[in-house]
Design goal:
alpha+beta; WD40_rpt; WD repeat-containing protein 11; 57 strands; 1321 residues; five-stranded antiparallel sheet; 25 helices
Length: 1321
């Protein structure tokens, strides 16, 4: 018996359309790969070229023949591995966490297209709990856990290495809806319930329950509708169903704000709520907009303070935050399902996802001094748009239940009548050297920057005064791409197998050839035509208004199909609809149109291999024979009790057809051709003639049939005549009493039949020989002969589809067909509805390809190879037939083998001339080419730019040779990213390193490289004792130590005056600058002014003290009621703080406190007293000990400077690295604190040798440029202080070791690249 096939044998799987049973599960990776659930498979799309990359089926459990619906999908958070292994056993960055309706959770591996392993979800004391949602949570720098919501209310957390569950939390009777990870802390996540129950989860490890910290919160919402739904479903058994199955139209989703820590936006079905996790309070509530369906999903915009909300009715609303408040206003409404060109009723939007890679690339191009931030064209189709008004772009992907994936371009534009202040424009141009049409992506203050990437000016040195007023921004949505997959559940499958007598539909006598097309009829009435070579839907025709019940090819360019509907109650009967569809013109022509409903519906269609004749089978009515001419003509009606009918398949051409043969070339079992038979046989085999010069009437075709009583027969159709074939009858009778014949296959000279008892019989119509065997299975529904080519030793391979929706392949030429069968009832992972062979074999060594229509609405191809020519045993083929044809290249570098992906990454980092991407094509235009002469084909060194070399100088050329097969096919980068690279390739190493990280989906690393020049400039200014200059727009200079109290004595002065809603959101994750931290803290103050409750007051006082607004803090403390439990501690702090403001305020505070008395204390009070006496360093240490890291940094930014501020940053960096496990954010803090050696040690400990070498290179580049920009009149002592970077001196042993190890790393990478096979799509 052949071994069970691996999933690699699936050359092609087209997923069926997703449905509500999939729970709207979809995930878009940072590298631009969209994964969404469709039935029991996961479809993976490349969003840049909008092509289907692959489909990964989930294998069924051992107890079932079919897999359950997949209900949750999440990409692995691992990045491209930098360490080099001898064998590439797995690709952690290309793995998917998948959960299904039966409660199974597994990791699917893209490379092997099979599960890497299954998590231990066994729960013997409860039914199978379907998976509702999945989320990755970080526990260490290189370790993640998987959190899962199972059933209605169970949260489970699994060790992703062992698959063991180490924590469970049952929130019953709550209903858990979704789980999301905090972008500011990857160890923290939140779980939301339908009633507003919010569970905060913080992981400290992955070993036991003690590693999990929980906090229960409540978001107020109206759950009246949910209570009604619960009452309605009280009598129904949930059976462990997730919330998406229990209440499919009632869901709650939320998203963390990427701009403000502790803030989330929650979308309940009819309510939008902004919630502060720190204050445990609702900041804002809005009702469902008029004319919109319930909320479906909430998506954040990283560049702007904007949220996008998808609705159940297919609408998309845009919500922006008002300045100085946490209040969101709806500012646009768009349709995600266009009303033109869609069916009625409109398709449902099941899932939406927003692209994160667009934001990173825009951040990179904003650093180019002479480039428009939106000059990077995200999509060519919109090149006609006036780019001067566009502020930001991003892509949104939506998945609908008609099998379409829509790609939308969301743009934020300035109003055309908006005018900018001329002085602002002038300053903007002088600072950034950017055209006046540019807009900075800044926050609600004017303090954001757009800087030259190589000039390493600190953030405060290049702040931009101009802002975009929020009221002047408009948001637009444009459709820029669409991928059309299978549109509905499959009902029929048809494969073209034209004989040589079939002529081309356009006329003439040229014979029709087999085409790589498969037609699929669907339950919605459409016919989808699949291009096998491209694994895509080539065309879709809306033909019927109901289920397509029959479908056949007429030659290779026409289709005939039928459907029927029941007549009205008054008339009764059936309305049969027969349609001929021309693939070339797209026209649908009906024939056999009846004026009244008929008594019997059509049962099946049978088309001859030439496409000239059609048999129409009715239920309990005569069979009609039609000639399928341009205008179909009925030839005759056959009133016999037929059970099955099948036309003969095209016969096998002889190996050397020297002349037209009039004998059957279907060899007998002994390998010798049979003797000439009767004239009908001669006539029916004339389709082996070379050409078709004779009249049509000289050709004849025959069909075999079985009657109700078991009798068999063969009729021949020639022209308009139908006559008995008069075959030689079998020696033993075929009339049986144990089973009705239910299926048949006919290819001269063999007729094969199957009955409802599982018996297979075959009969040679020329010799009368016959045989039979029992399959010991259910009844047989379909029998299909495999295609045969000259040289085949076996002509009797058949595919058998049983009534239990499983299949097998038998070889009737083998001595024991049953023993040598490919019996894999669970092989497809889905129940099989229809199957047929693909007749594209041209050589005996070509594999057999079986087309399968699955019960999960997927379409699959199975490749089978004959492994033993003597016995004819078949085994699945491990490799695809041939390389897939794609209309456009697949520009997804993350899919390359790991060594080749690392090679491309290194080439992009070191700097390759853009012309290399187009050395063998014509994509690159001259304006983007920096090469004066094209190097010779054998010398690739000329393509590398003259950047500072690091490592082995011979390695880049060898890597270019390794990548040559890819760039010849233009499948490394798409045109737009090549254009972007051409703009930044000479802008310094930081830009190239950020671009390389963004291309491979490593957005945090990209932000690190973008932020590194500012952090290093901050350090060198401190070392040189050079006070940073304020930006040209700054009206006053802030002295942090001396005048802070007087400057912010009024609460209103602490509020930013900018009305700008646009900020560089991603870069705020790595904020370290004092001015920036202080202003963001002031922005948060205004959100909490109206919050009530003792806890809210304590938090607000803490914020006021952190920003130095002691007068406002005293005012809030003195307003405490004497009955409050916080009165005593508030009074004590009020007295202490007032003494630091003024004597008059101290006297007032003492009078108020003296009139009242006492109660408890609070742990944070000591911090405030330390601030009152000026002990800010100790206060920051206390805050950090208590876990208030951001507040400690804010306090330090307000009161500390120099080495004191650096100590706070360095301790914060240790926390971010070792507890939050965010290495990129920690590196920025280390650099800003001057701890370069600690930053280098962190990179080495994380096994990032290439990044460590590039870090040293970039730091030296920035350092040299900083020295060159010092004025010649500068004090020589200042230059001496920064002559060497601390910890990165060239003589440092650590630095030397990094350089040596990087050289070894490069050489090993070259060897691995040489040994790895190129990625074959």
């Amino acid at each position: 018996m052949p071994s069970e096939p691996s999933s690699a044998s699936w050359d092609c799987i087209l997923p069926g359309p997703p449905s509500k049973h999939n729970g709207g599960s979809a995930d878009l990776s940072a590298a631009g790969l969209l994964a969404y659930a469709a039935g029991s498979s996961v479809a993976i799309l490349d969003t840049h070229s909008m092509q289907l990359v692959s489909t990964l089926p989930l294998p069924p459990p051992s107890s079932s023949a079919a897999s359950a619906f997949i209900t949750s999908v999440r990409w692995s958070p691992f990045s491209l591995p930098h360490h080099l292994l001898e064998t590439e056993s797995s690709s952690p960055h290309l793995q998917l966490a998948v959960g299904d309706r039966h409660g199974r959770i597994c990791l699917l591996d893209f490379r092997s297209k099979s599960p890497a392993f299954f998590f231990d979800t066994s729960n013997p004391n409860s039914p199978k709990l379907g998976v509702q949602d999945l989320c990755w949570i970080q526990t260490r720098l290189d370790s993640w856990c998987l959190a899962a919501i199972s059933g209605p209310s169970l949260l489970s957390i699994y060790n992703a290495t062992t698959g063991r569950c180490f924590f469970k939390y049952d929130a019953s009777p709550e209903y858990f809806s979704c789980i999301r990870r905090d972008p500011f802390d990857s160890c923290h996540s939140c779980v939301l319930g339908l009633r507003g129950f919010l569970l905060s989860v913080k992981l400290l490890g992955d070993e036991s329950e003690n590693d999990v910290m929980l906090k229960e919160l409540k978001v107020r919402t109206d759950a009246t509708e949910l209570h009604r739904l619960e009452r309605d479903s009280a009598n129904e058994s949930s059976n462990g169903a997730p919330v998406s199955s229990l209440f499919p139209n009632y869901m709650a989703k939320f998203a963390f704000s990427p701009h403000w820590k502790h803030v989330i936006l929650v979308g309940f079905p009819r309510e939008l709520v902004s919630f502060d996790l720190q204050y445990e309070s609702v900041l804002f509530t809005a009702g469902l907009p008029r004319g919109c369906g319930k909320f479906l999903e909430v998506l954040p915009d990283v560049n702007m303070e904007v949220f996008y909300c998808a609705h159940l009715d297919g609408k998309l609303t845009t919500w922006r935050r008002k300045e100085s408040e946490q209040v969101h206003i709806m500012c646009s409404m768009e349709e995600l399902v266009p009303s033109i060109g869609t069916t009625v009723p409109s398709p449902l939007v099941l899932a939406v996802a927003i692209s994160q890679s667009d934001y990173t690339l825009q951040d990179i191009i904003r650093r180019c001094p002479d480039t428009d931030p939106v000059d990077f064209e995200l999509d060519n189709p919109l090149a006609f748009i006036d780019e001067s008004h566009i502020i930001s772009k991003t892509h949104l992907l939506s998945v609908s239940d008609d099998g379409k994936v829509w790609k939308w371009l969301l743009t934020a534009e300035r109003s055309k009548d908006a005018r900018r202040d001329s002085a602002c424009v002038k300053k903007f141009d002088e600072i950034c050297e950017v055209p006046s049409s540019e807009v900075s992506s800044s926050g609600q203050r004017t303090g954001d920057i757009v800087t030259h990437p190589d000039s390493i000016n600190c953030r405060e040195n290049s702040q931009v005064a101009c802002a975009v007023v929020s009221d002047e921004v408009s948001f637009k949505t444009n459709l820029v791409g669409q991928l059309h997959l299978l549109s509905s559940a499959i009902s029929m499958l048809a494969v073209p197998s034209p004989s040589l007598t079939a002529t081309l539909a356009r006329g003439g006598n040229s014979p029709a050839v087999a085409v790589p097309l498969v037609a699929l009829g669907t339950q919605s009435g459409t016919i989808d035509v699949i291009d096998i070579s491209a694994s895509a839907v080539a065309a879709s025709f809306s033909v019927h208004n109901s289920v397509v019940r029959g479908l056949r090819w007429l030659g290779n360019s026409r289709l005939v199909s039928f459907s029927y509907t029941q007549g009205s109650e008054k008339t009764g009967g059936y309305v049969n609809k027969l349609v001929v569809t021309c693939l070339r013109s797209g026209l649908n022509r009906t024939f056999r149109v009846m004026q009244k409903p008929e008594r019997a519906p059509i049962r099946a269609l049978r088309a001859s291999s030439s496409g000239r004749y059609l048999l129409i089978l009715f239920r309990d009515a005569p069979v009609e024979v039609w000639a399928m001419t341009k205008t179909p003509i009925m030839l005759r009606s056959l009133a016999l009790p037929f059970t099955v009918l099948e036309w003969t398949l095209p016969t096998v051409p002889r190996p050397v057809p020297n002349k037209p043969s009039r004998t059957s070339s279907f060899l007998s079992r002994g390998g010798n051709p049979p003797a000439e038979t009767s004239s009908p046989t001669k006539a029916s085999s004339t389709d082996t003639k070379e050409g078709a010069d004779g009249a049509q009437d000289e050709f004849s075709e025959s069909f075999a049939f079985a009657l109700v009583n078991g009798a068999l027969g063969v009729f021949e159709v020639q022209g308009r005549r139908i006559r008995d074939f008069r075959p030689k009858w079998p020696t033993s009778s075929f009339v049986t009493s144990d089973g009705l014949i239910t299926s048949m296959a006919y290819r001269l000279p063999h007729v094969v039949t199957g009955d409802r008892s599982g018996n297979i019989r075959w009969w040679d119509v020329t010799t009368g020989q016959s045989s039979s065997f029992n399959t010991h299975r259910d009844g047989i529904r379909r029998l299909k002969f495999s295609p045969v080519v000259p040289g085949d030793r076996s002509r009797g391979r058949i595919a058998v589809l049983f009534y239990d929706n499983t299949f097998s392949v038998f070889d009737l030429d083998s001595p024991d067909p049953l023993a040598n069968s490919l019996l894999q009832p669970q092989f497809p992972g889905t129940l099989v509805l229809e199957l047929d062979w693909l007749p594209l074999r041209t050589d005996k060594d070509d594999p057999l390809v079986l087309c399968i229509a699955g019960a999960d609405s997927s379409f699959r191809l199975v490749d089978l190879n004959v492994s033993d020519q003597k016995t004819g045993v078949m085994s699945p083929r491990a490799q695809p037939i041939k390389e897939r044809f794609r209309p456009v290249p697949l520009p997804s570098p993350v899919l390359l083998p790991t060594p080749h992906a690392l090679a491309l990454r290194m080439i992009l980092q070191l700097g390759v001339k853009p012309s290399w991407f187009d050395a063998f094509g014509s994509v690159m235009s001259e304006e983007y080419s920096y090469v004066t002469g094209t190097p010779s084909a054998g010398d690739l060194r000329g393509y590398m730019i003259n950047s500072p070399r690091v490592g082995d100088s011979a390695v880049p050329e060898m890597l270019l040779k390794v990548l040559e097969p890819y760039h010849r096919e233009a499948c490394l980068l798409d045109d737009e990213r090549v254009r972007l690279y051409s703009k930044i390739v000479k802008r310094g190493s930081t830009m190239r390193l950020a671009f390389a990280a963004a291309v491979f989906g490593e957005s945090m690393e990209a932000l690190f490289w973008l932020q590194l020049p500012h952090a290093l400039k901050h350090l060198m200014n401190k070392l040189a004792n050079k006070s940073p200059q304020q930006g040209p727009h700054t009206a006053q200079t802030r002295d942090i130590d001396a005048s802070v109290l007087s400057r912010i004595s009024s609460k209103r002065k602490s509020v930013p005056e900018s009305k700008n809603i646009l900020i560089n959101g991603q870069l705020k994750l790595m904020a370290f600058d004092q001015q920036e931290l202080w202003e963001r803290a002031n922005e948060r103050l205004t959100w909490h002014e109206r919050l009530e409750g003792e806890e809210a007051i304590q938090n607000r006082v803490h914020e006021l003290v952190s920003v130095g607004n002691l007068e406002a803090a005293v005012s809030v403390l003195l307003s405490t009621s004497p009955e409050s439990s916080y009165f005593y501690v508030n009074a004590l702090r009020a007295v202490a703080l007032s003494s630091a403001v003024s004597t008059s305020l101290l006297e007032l505070a003492v009078k108020v406190v003296a009139a009242n008395m006492v109660r408890n204390d609070r742990s944070m009070s000591g911090t405030h007293l330390l601030c009152a006496v000026g002990r800010y360093q100790e206060a920051c240490s206390q805050l950090q000990d208590a876990g208030y890291w951001t507040d400690a940094a804010t306090l330090a930014a307000t009161h500390l400077k120099g080495s004191d501020y650096a100590r706070v940053l360095q301790r914060w960096a240790d926390q971010v690295l070792h507890v939050e496990h965010n290495i990129w954010r920690a590196l920025i803090l280390y650099v800003a604190a001057g701890a370069l050696q600690e930053a280098l040690a962190a990179l080495r400990q994380a096994q990032l040798p290439d990044t460590a070498a590039m870090f040293i290179l970039v730091c030296r580049e920035i350092h040299v440029e900083f020295l060159s920009q010092l004025d010649s009149e500068e004090d020589e002592t200042s230059k001496e202080k920064v002559s060497n970077l601390p910890g990165l001196d060239p003589s440092n042993e650590e630095v030397i070791a990094v350089g040596e190890y990087f050289g070894q790393y490069q050489r090993k990478l070259v060897h691995l690249c040489m040994d790895s096979q190129p990625y074959a799509d």
